[in-house]
């Protein structure tokens, strides 16, 4: 077990299973088809991300360096939250990027009844330590506990 | 964040609950980047990324309606990304049914919302809003609240405007209150390069391939690029701007680049030169082998990798007038060489409505039509974002389209060969 301290972008506490990408998470490429065509597991549709492609994202602790790609990314994330098809939390090794920040904030301000904690600046060590399937616990203060 | 009295009053709800939530969104967004203040937007027009009435995006339209119902409008008129549908683009019965009755069933409704919010005009649908024929071209130093990754990177890099890679919805919220958080690419420090890229190819690199390689390497950082002006010159003429448009779109979609500097060419590089490079900048060298490696590693997700292409899209981002003319010349010449009169693969060239209007008044339009090529204002990405197209072998010279769909990328020369010489 290891603890990492990050910065809270949007608060919340949650426990979920990790899915990990060490490359940038392309929000549009990953989520759009799943949201559009009602994939209940919200499997990642990004063909360029071999670590995530085809893996369910709903309810998971998504561990990533940052998001990349289209500037629809934030609104796609917002829609995922509004439709309750979002990851349980998003845990960024790096400083959050503008698209992910927009999605997290839009969901926090405009969506009632959905909490998706978003923590950033967890560091490179976090992303090299965490592996798919590990148990992740996020605390309100931005502490992220990773259990093997 | 330090707010002015006016901004604080809006945040405190003195102008209504909805406007307070808009301001709260912008303040929280800025806080994520330690923005110290909000600064006024100075461009004449805004540009929005959300142009499509996708049924699944209902939460977006509900939010827009909340804004409209509160009597709030954008302080700026705006252009918006391309429409997702055009009956001129080949589609079978099932595709037409899915597009019109299922996927984009909200299109008319959403366009009505856009008109009420402040759409520039009914033709202001293009990802290349900065084309003269469209009329949304910011000035150097203008502060923007734009979204659309390819337009943002162009505005920052080629026009010298200042804009972060804002998401959809954040874009319109900026122009509703008239301010954006001051961070990142709005600041002098945020515009300094943290990567040095040295182009050492033996010929002019393909714009969309070079952009892809750089985007995947530097991600959201700012690259300062040496060696490219040897090939594309030191003046921002039509051909160079078109090259930079395609190059930038690939950096932004294959990575998350919002600004690049090209030594001796782009405005800030011309003014400040190497002073733009931050201490400790990393280095990336690109030669022929590196570009070949990047292209070879693109995944091919067609069911049958050897399938004959059924459709070809050229123009993501939308083509310029000069590019339309050049493609016309090139297709004509290649067809003549191969002894054919029509393209072997249904081919669509996409451009802004305003650009197509001008193109259609030139003698090139009839010549292009005679080759069997179709022109359209559509967004190829929106056309292809469905399972029906996933099974369809589509080729493109757009690295952005490749990134988001099952379309297979080829260089311009390879595309020309494919569409004029047998479709292989």
Short description:
Chain A has four helices and ten strands. With 148 residues, chain A is α/β, with parallel strands linked by helices. Chain A has a single domain (2-147), classed as Phosphohistidine domain (Glucose Oxidase, domain 1).
SSE blueprint:
The complex is a heterodimer of chains A (148) and B (424).
Chain A: E1 2-5, E2 7-10, E3 14-20, E4 25-26, H1 27-36, E5 61-64, E6 67-68, H2 73-82, E7 89-92, H3 98-110, E8 118-120, H4 124-129, E9 135-138, E10 143-147
Parallel strand pairs in A: 3-5, 4-6, 5-7, 7-8
Antiparallel strand pairs in A: 1-10, 2-8, 3-9, 9-10
Helix pairs in contact in A: 1-2, 2-3
Chain B: H1 5-11, H2 17-31, E1 38-40, E2 46-48, H3 58-69, E3 78-80, H4 93-103, H5 107-117, H6 149-157, H7 170-177, E4 179-181, E5 193-199, H8 207-218, E6 223-226, H9 229-232, H10 238-254, E7 261-262, H11 267-272, E8 277-286, H12 288-296, E9 311-319, H13 321-338, E10 347-351, H14 353-359, H15 363-370, E11 374-376, H16 380-384, H17 387-390, E12 394-396, H18 399-404, E13 408-409, H19 412-420
Parallel strand pairs in B: 2-3, 5-6, 5-8, 6-7, 9-10, 9-12, 10-11, 12-13
Antiparallel strand pairs in B: 1-4
Helix pairs in contact in B: 2-7, 3-5, 6-10, 8-10, 8-12, 13-15, 13-19
What does this protein structure show overall?
- The complex is a heterodimer of chains A (148) and B (424).
- Helices cover 26% and strands 26% of the residues of chain A.
- Chain A has helices at 27-36, 73-82, 98-110, 124-129, and strands spanning 2-5, 7-10, 14-20, 25-26, 61-64, 67-68, 89-92, 118-120, 135-138, 143-147.
- The mean pLDDT of chain A is 95.
- The N and C termini of chain A lie close together (6 Å).
- Chain A has 148 residues and is of the alpha/beta class.
- Chain B folds into three domains: 5-186, Aconitase, domain 3, CATH 3.30.499; 192-296, no CATH class; 311-420, Aconitase, domain 3 (2-Layer Sandwich).
- Chain B has 19 helices and 13 strands.
- Chain B has helices at 5-11, 17-31, 58-69, 93-103, 107-117, 149-157, 170-177, 207-218, 229-232, 238-254, 267-272, 288-296, 321-338, 353-359, 363-370, 380-384, 387-390, 399-404, 412-420; strands at 38-40, 46-48, 78-80, 179-181, 193-199, 223-226, 261-262, 277-286, 311-319, 347-351, 374-376, 394-396, 408-409.
- Chain B is globular, with a radius of gyration of 22 Å.
- Chain B starts with a helix and ends with a helix.
- The interface between A and B is large, with 41 and 48 residues.
């Amino acid at each position: 077990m290891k603890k990492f301290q990050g910065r809270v972008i949007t608060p919340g506490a949650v426990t979920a299973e990790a899915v990990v990408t060490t490359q940038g998470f392309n929000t549009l490429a990953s989520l759009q088809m799943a949201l559009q065509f009602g994939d209940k597991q919200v499997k990642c549709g990004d063909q360029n991300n071999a670590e995530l492609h085809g893996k369910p994202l709903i309810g998971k602790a998504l561990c990533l360096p940052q998001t990349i790609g289209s500037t629809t990314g934030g609104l796609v994330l917002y829609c995922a939250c509004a439709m309750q098809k979002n990851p349980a939390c998003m845990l960024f090794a790096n400083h959050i990027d503008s698209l992910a920040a927009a999605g997290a904030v839009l969901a926090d301000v405009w969506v009632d009844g959905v909490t998706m904690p978003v923590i950033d600046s967890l560091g490179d060590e976090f992303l090299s330590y965490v592996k798919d399937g590990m148990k992740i616990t996020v605390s309100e203060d931005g502490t992220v506990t990773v259990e093997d | 964040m330090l707010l002015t009295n006016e901004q604080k009053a809006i945040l405190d709800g003195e102008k209504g609950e909805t406007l307070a939530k808009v301001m709260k969104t912008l303040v929280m967004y800025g806080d994520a980047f330690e923005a110290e203040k909000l600064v006024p937007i100075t461009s004449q027009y805004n540009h929005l990324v959300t142009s499509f009435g996708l049924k699944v995006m209902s939460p977006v339209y509900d939010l827009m309606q909340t804004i409209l119902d509160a009597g709030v409008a954008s302080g700026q008129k705006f252009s918006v990304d391309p429409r997702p549908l055009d009956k001129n683009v080949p589609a079978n019965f099932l595709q037409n049914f899915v597009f019109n009755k299922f996927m984009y069933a909200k299109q008319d409704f959403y366009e009505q919302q856009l008109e009420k919010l402040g759409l520039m005009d009914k033709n202001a649908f293009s990802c290349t809003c900065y084309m003269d024929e469209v009329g949304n071209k910011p000035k150097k130093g203008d502060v923007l609240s734009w979204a659309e990754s390819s337009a943002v990177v162009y505005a920052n890099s080629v026009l010298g405007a200042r804009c972060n890679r804002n998401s959809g919805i954040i874009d319109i919220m900026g122009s509703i209150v008239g301010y954006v958080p001051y961070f990142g690419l709005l600041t002098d420090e945020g515009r300094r390069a943290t990567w040095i890229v040295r182009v050492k190819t033996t010929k002019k690199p393909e714009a969309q391939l070079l952009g892809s390689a750089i985007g995947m390497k530097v991600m959201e950082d700012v690259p300062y690029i040496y060696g490219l002006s040897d090939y594309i010159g030191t003046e921002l003429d039509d051909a160079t701007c078109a090259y930079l448009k395609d190059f930038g779109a690939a950096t932004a979609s294959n990575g998350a680049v919002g600004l690049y500097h090209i030594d001796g060419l782009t405005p800030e590089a011309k003014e400040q030169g190497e002073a733009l490079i931050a201490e400790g900048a990393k280095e990336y060298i690109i030669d022929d082998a590196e570009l070949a490696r990047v292209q070879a590693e693109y995944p091919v997700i067609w069911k049958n990798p050897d399938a004959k292409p059924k459709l070809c899209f050229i123009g993501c981002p939308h083509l310029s007038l000069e590019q339309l003319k050049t493609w016309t010349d090139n297709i004509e010449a290649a067809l003549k060489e191969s002894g054919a009169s029509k393209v072997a693969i249904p081919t669509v060239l996409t451009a802004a409505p305003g650009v197509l209007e001008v193109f259609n008044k030139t003698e090139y339009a009839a010549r292009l039509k005679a080759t069997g090529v179709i022109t359209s204002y559509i967004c190829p990405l929106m056309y292809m974002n469905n399972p029906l197209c996933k099974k369809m072998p589509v080729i493109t010279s757009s690295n952005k389209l490749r990134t988001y769909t099952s379309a297979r990328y080829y260089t311009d020369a390879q595309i020309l060969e494919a569409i004029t010489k047998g479709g292989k």
